[in-house]
Write a structure and sequence with these properties.
4 copies of one chain form a homotetramer. Chain A is an alpha/beta fold. Chain A has 8 helices and 13 strands.
Chain lengths: 286, 286, 286, 286
Amino acid sequence: MRSSLHATLLVSCADGPGIVAALARFVFEQGGNILDSDQHADSRLGVFFTRLTFTLDGFLLARDLIAPSVEALLSPHEPTVEVRFSDETKRGAILVSKTNHCLYDLLLRQEAGELCCEFPLVIANHDTLRGVAEHFGRAFHHVPITKETKAAQEGVIFELLERERIDFVVLARYMQVLTPAFVDRYPNRVINIHHGFLPAFQGAKPYHQAHKRGVKLIGASGHYVTADLDEGPIIAQSVVPVSHSDSIRDMVHKGRDLEKSVLANAVRCHVEDRILVYANKTVVFD
Amino acid sequence: MRSSLHATLLVSCADGPGIVAALARFVFEQGGNILDSDQHADSRLGVFFTRLTFTLDGFLLARDLIAPSVEALLSPHEPTVEVRFSDETKRGAILVSKTNHCLYDLLLRQEAGELCCEFPLVIANHDTLRGVAEHFGRAFHHVPITKETKAAQEGVIFELLERERIDFVVLARYMQVLTPAFVDRYPNRVINIHHGFLPAFQGAKPYHQAHKRGVKLIGASGHYVTADLDEGPIIAQSVVPVSHSDSIRDMVHKGRDLEKSVLANAVRCHVEDRILVYANKTVVFD
Amino acid sequence: MRSSLHATLLVSCADGPGIVAALARFVFEQGGNILDSDQHADSRLGVFFTRLTFTLDGFLLARDLIAPSVEALLSPHEPTVEVRFSDETKRGAILVSKTNHCLYDLLLRQEAGELCCEFPLVIANHDTLRGVAEHFGRAFHHVPITKETKAAQEGVIFELLERERIDFVVLARYMQVLTPAFVDRYPNRVINIHHGFLPAFQGAKPYHQAHKRGVKLIGASGHYVTADLDEGPIIAQSVVPVSHSDSIRDMVHKGRDLEKSVLANAVRCHVEDRILVYANKTVVFD
Amino acid sequence: MRSSLHATLLVSCADGPGIVAALARFVFEQGGNILDSDQHADSRLGVFFTRLTFTLDGFLLARDLIAPSVEALLSPHEPTVEVRFSDETKRGAILVSKTNHCLYDLLLRQEAGELCCEFPLVIANHDTLRGVAEHFGRAFHHVPITKETKAAQEGVIFELLERERIDFVVLARYMQVLTPAFVDRYPNRVINIHHGFLPAFQGAKPYHQAHKRGVKLIGASGHYVTADLDEGPIIAQSVVPVSHSDSIRDMVHKGRDLEKSVLANAVRCHVEDRILVYANKTVVFD
């Protein structure tokens, strides 16, 4: 059933009675069948969030009229509405540096059907991983970046992203801080993997920090990138046990598995339109 | 919001379009506001399951008319409907033998507000745990059972359960196999904790079996009791790592934590009306 | 075998060849049999750590001569040596406030034989948990503390600890910061449970901090108390997943299980003499 | 330190006093320094197991005399002795069918230095994964197998294994049952990944079995292959939660991550000489 043509509706609005019913009736009256619905209310902020998946076969309303109709329907609640269609696959660019584990992992999962998106484009500030991209038949662009050239080179990246009609960007251990211009251009569309359990161990060399502090777990955090480094909305986190006998090198090895699975999980939630962002936090519907 | 007066509707029926919309409209038109809704479709069996929570303040329909109305509304889908009300707290009996860890755990969680039910009654086939029940101010009944007296003594238990208006029974390491008469009397209302990862290590002494096989994880399974021992629908499971250095005694110690948390989790799902049973499996809505 | 009379030797010293052999020969020549040995070398600091368990039946050397003999044996390595005997059970005091879950958990585990120590004494700055201590037959002392009376009341606590010959102190959600005098008096012998994943969310209300930041895991940390609040050597940590749908109250519920298991684990490691402290970190031998 | 030249000694023998001391003295007198030692006693069977790692720089005894010397030293205990040297890297063959995730995972981890072995050879009963082996520069041999040709084709495999001086074999989702001749030829040297939590769900289609039973966790088990299918000594196991909403396809996706990590973990333990087999179980030293 899930594999048939369907739409996903993401709505945030002021909370109040009747929203679920109004949306359910709207879908039904237009000829859709609800496959999945989930909702969340933040009672302190008075905000309501919902994610609705419904069939498109025989849906009466044209695609481009769905969002405006929902906006009109819920207008007293001042809604923010997004609609996605299951046959419009998202296109992602993967930005990397020299480390290959997250790149392999994303491309393999995508090929295996675990990530329902496309990754036509790999961009790197080193040439190291060209062979990996080419093995999978993806375009690879080497865009080296220094402090001085960053703004200009990001311009090169923007062109590549536009030419390839890229919807979202994955920083797969990219090791470069993006400029505010980049972040503003792709709000809630740049996903980073931080190799630490945020908010602990922000910034550089988190495994060194963790080793020095003597923690018994190390973590990784997948988050949207915002202007404040490592302060963006967290999408997914995970940890793995460590002990006194783990050197920093052991932590790096153990951390790789974490980084791969957490980043893949964050990307999966993003491409399946499961995430709503508010108050610098995420609602992630299962 | 969740703490206000609300109803929970559990429906299984033949799948088809419009069910979600019909239920949402029904709730809205009767003056309720949907707080939570979840659904699942088993596409192979063509069965649809939903759980809907909605406010009761100002609901137009009388409580005892809600289920019949939903049945009428969905009659083409041949629904099974249950309705529960947040001010009608479930009453559970805890059956134990000599081991105290699950009994303490259930009573402490219930007192701490983690399990929204009452446990007015503890029944045991040994007198060992009387002091625990009394410490928490619960009635304790010693009903010893032998092979010969089992049927008769279960009669005594039935009387106690009825006198105390008990809705569900928890076997908290009870160590007795119930008669089919007992199981039939409380279908999907007797919860057992099996100290093994079902379907592995069914029957007696699962830790001994696990130790002999040299497994690297031991598990516990919370399930509804059916006529076939350890074959009932599984509600919750968990595992914990073990190694060659764990003796059977170590496994028993580690297993206790598992048993407590898995049983508490299964009971929590039951008392919050999150479970639908079909095809000897469970749908457990989060 | 493990249950026979045995000694545990804990040694930290400058690293170098032959230490393991020297200790093994020493034990053998004195008539002991090594049951368990573990070691760790911090190659950056050049420090060697070992934990050796050996039988005492027929051991030639008197108990009080073992430590001095080992010190003499390894004197070129400037060792720190501790020896513990399996028939000299450690005596712990539990300090609590109003919350009962960690207190019940520690006393139940100790009664079940999971924690090989005694807990003869419960001290509280509120009278709330008197009934719990008395249910388990433990002495309960209500020692209320205010900012003004803290130093004086800690004096009262010291007297209680000495009168009961207490070896170590467990802060089981005690909610009071100890004075430096207390910490200095019991170095590496006061164990605290912090309800956050250190070093994230130090200080007050960690669940509120976690909720605000929107993390996807919450943690608990068992650590030795030092002069710097929440900065002491970490012994054990664990986490549990949370989501947007978990309120602060839900986090508190989930956190309780974490706090219980992490604190019990830290206490178990301490009473089994598995912990060596150095550089504000712990070596915890399995 | 661990990266310097060292030997690993694995001993099983009848338990008794003085074994640790005898071995420690032996190493020291021959000029070695013990880096790591671990031991385990099965008190029911009266068997003692130990793993000792020591430096080889300046070791007096020739390599080929170490095992005989230890055998002589412990002869009253009827020991089984194995010695491995850190500069003699194990060579493994990977046998696959059509599924690529375990193959990629093993080769990537080996290249990243997480698995200290070589994988010069990939053998497959389909030609599907040739490109993967070649991408990593490994020899790939397509050896198709049918019921009728199995014995003969295993002969071809034996030749390949011998020509490449292969020490151990990894069945990375090979989907073929080996003949007893194969198993006998490589005792405790063929590692398989079973995509189920043994001993539950043995045999074919374990995810289908798990889905049908409605379990709440699925597992994977890495084990040595013996004559009895899925009955060999378990090296590593892990599980991942599933729910009613997971289809068999979802289980297969989730299972892939499990299979990769469990198989890699089992291989790592094998190539680091951490495993001793007895009574169809494993002792796996950390």
